[in-house]
Amino acid sequence: MIPVIIFITTFVSTLLSSMSGGGASIINLPVFLALGMPFPLAVAVQKVSSAFWVLPAAYNYLRGQVIQWRFLLVYACVGLVGAYLGVLFVLEVNQRFLEVGIGVLIVLLVVYTYFNKGLGLTVRPVLAHHRIKELGTYASSLVLGFYESIFGSGNGILFSLISVYTKGLDFVSALGYYFAIAFAWVVFAATLLIYKGYYDFSFMIPAVLGGVLGAWCGSKLGKFKGNHFIKVIFVLVAAVLGLKLILGV
């Protein structure tokens, strides 16, 4: 019965996450913990599932586009430092304070996105190369990589807004880049947690199957519907996610 619950949970969570960047862990982790998994094991199961579904989702969003490989690879590599620190945090520290801070930030970004009607609906050129802005963009990968290893919910939202503003991406492209970048982070985090002894294949296999199916369906639907649809889902899921993180419910 437990594998069935895990499969259904990961299918639903990744279906929504792959259309919004809201993060499957906001649904998965509470369910995993309710099933009796210790927190590090629950995170490990979540990261293993993500390692298998983020690339199919990225492929669906980025197929047919010219990819900024330098941005993608450098952002992913810098974020690995944050991902490593995040794994250490998972093993030692309560994540509640981080959840509240991220929740507040997400709610503020939802308000900004909602009132900025044209944001992320079209690809726009970045008119000038600004070194400080570029360094700030890559510095954000440390924070997002760190948070990805702990909880991860909302990372796609934060990355989308960063890349829409600094790289001129639309929401469809931003989600594709995020899922491609997150692959390196979740694989790294999962490997470290498994090395520390946190693994259970009876949990991980149904989580992978549910995650891949949900992400494939969600990303295909998101790409088909386009930026307006994704922006609506983005705002709705992000608002619920932010409030849930703040309130701890």
Rounded to an integer in angstroms, the radius of gyration calculated over CA atoms is 17 Å
* Class per helix and strand makeup: mainly alpha
Provide the number of structural domains. 1
Cα end-to-end separation: 25 Å
Number of helices: 10
Shape: globular
Task: Round the mean pLDDT to the nearest integer and report it.
Answer: 81
Q: Count of DSSP E strands?
A: 0
Q: How can the largest sheet be summarized?
A: none
The string of secondary-structure elements, in order, is HHHHHHHHHH
Poorly predicted runs: none
Give the helix level as a range of percent. Answer: over 70%
Beta content comes to: under 5%
Provide the descriptors you would attach to this structure in a database record.
globular, 249 residues, mainly alpha
Describe this structure in words.
This protein has one domain. The chain is built from ten helices and no strands. It is globular, with a radius of gyration of 17 Å. The chain is 81% helix and 0% strand. The protein starts with a helix and ends with a helix. Helix 3 packs parallel to helix 9 and helix 4 crosses helix 6. The model has no long low-confidence stretch (mean pLDDT 81). 50% of the residues are buried. By secondary structure, the chain is mainly α.
